[in-house]
Amino acid sequence: MKFLVIRFSSIGDIVLTTPAIRCLKEQVPNAEVHFLSKQSFKAVTEANPYIDQFFYLNNNLDALIAQLKLEQYDYIIDLHKNFRTFRIKLALGCPSFTYKKQSWAKFLLTKFGINQMSGRHISDRCVDTLAPLGVVNDGKGLDYFIPEKDIVPITDLPAQHRFGFIAIVIGASYFTKKLPVQKLQELCLKINYPIVLLGGREDAEVGNQVASVDDIKIYNACGKFRLNESADLVRLSKLVISHDTGLQYIACALNKKVLAIWGGTSPKLDVEPYYGNGKGMYENFVVPNLPCQPCSNFGTKTCPKKHFKCMMLQDIEAIATKALQWK
Questions:
Q1: Residues in Cβ contact with 312 at an 8 Å cutoff, skipping those fewer than 6 apart
Q2: What is the reported pLDDT for 279?
Q3: Mean per-residue pLDDT, 316-324
Q4: Are residues 215 and 320 in the same domain?
Q5: In a domain, 141, yes or no
Q6: For the whole prediction, is pTM greater than 0.90?
Q7: How high is the pLDDT of residue 278?
Q8: pLDDT, position 145
């Protein structure tokens, strides 16, 4: 049987679908699995051995649909569920199974603090989508595969970081998901161990500010490495401290210890670090008893309440202590 699995974005959300992709490929006899995402997220799955063929969305959905029609799929597995996936399913006309979003429950939680979430992790619910095919979760957690070309030579790191370091992921898609610079500086000063800062080019200047407090101990790798190279630095690390962002889930896939720092979003949204039935170690850091947290599914550009207590009141001492215990 030939399947088209759709998840357009983003890095973390695509990684969270990988148990479903793997279980589909391994549990359905002779399954041929095709995967559709946005071109900008090609790196996330390019080395995934459970995917037989890739398709990418740029700007021309009609041309993409014409290309997909030629494949004559038996089933579409829609793990994104938006208007574009609706158009694709309608145009291809084959049977489909669609991920059940918790949009109403998320609205109640983020707007009124009423928790009606299922408590079932998003990765488990992705696999649940495949239940009509007899597919069950194998409990093996997330997948992330780093192409050989993106393996980082240890000599690319400063000499003092080649025998072990803690990775701190300072980037995130929205302001309310990120510790402010002064809190990141405080955290790094309290960790007496080599540190590598990870993020994109857009995080490079913040990384410079953070590293300025100790530019021997702290190496700012933001913007210096491609996504899969950053993933390889995660693989090399002793421990990962991360905001709610894609590298957090990549760290889980690579079975790294994770300290997850939550601001405008929350583990209550069923998106905390995930290891399946494995023995991955993680701890969530959430400021307790904040009625406004979480304020959003994805984060926002500014704090709606103007005080940003979800990050400003984070217990930096506790995070640093745990990092040194777990390294």
A1: 180, 183
A2: 78
A3: 98
A4: yes
A5: no
A6: yes
A7: 82
A8: 98
**pLDDT at residue 207 greater than cutoff 90:** yes
- Does any domain span residue 225? yes
CB 5 within 8 A of CB 68: no
Residues 88 and 187 grouped into a single domain: no
Tens digits of residue pLDDT in 108-118: 999 999 999 99
pLDDT band at 7 (very low <50, low <70, confident <90, very high): very high
Q: Which residues pair with 37 in a beta bridge?
A: 56
> Phi/psi at 261 (nearest 5 deg)?
-105, 125
Instruction: Flag whether 275 is in a domain.
Output: yes
Count, residues in the chain: 327
In angstroms, rounded to a whole number, what is the distance separating the alpha carbons of residues 130 and 181?
43
Same domain, 124 and 155: no
User: Of 73, 107, 133, which residue constitutes the final position of a domain?
Assistant: 133
Q: Name the residue range of residue 194's domain.
A: 148-326
In degrees, rounded to 5, the angle at the alpha carbon of residue 287 between the alpha carbons of residues 282 and 288 is 105
| Strand order, beta sheet including 258-261 | 218-220, 195-198, 166-169, 239-242, 258-261, 282-285
Cβ–Cβ < 8 Å for 252, 142: yes
- What the block records as the tokens of 277 is 């039935």
Report how many domains make up the chain. 2
- Residue 292 maps to which CATH number? 3.40.50.2000
Q: What percent of the chain has pLDDT over 70?
A: 100
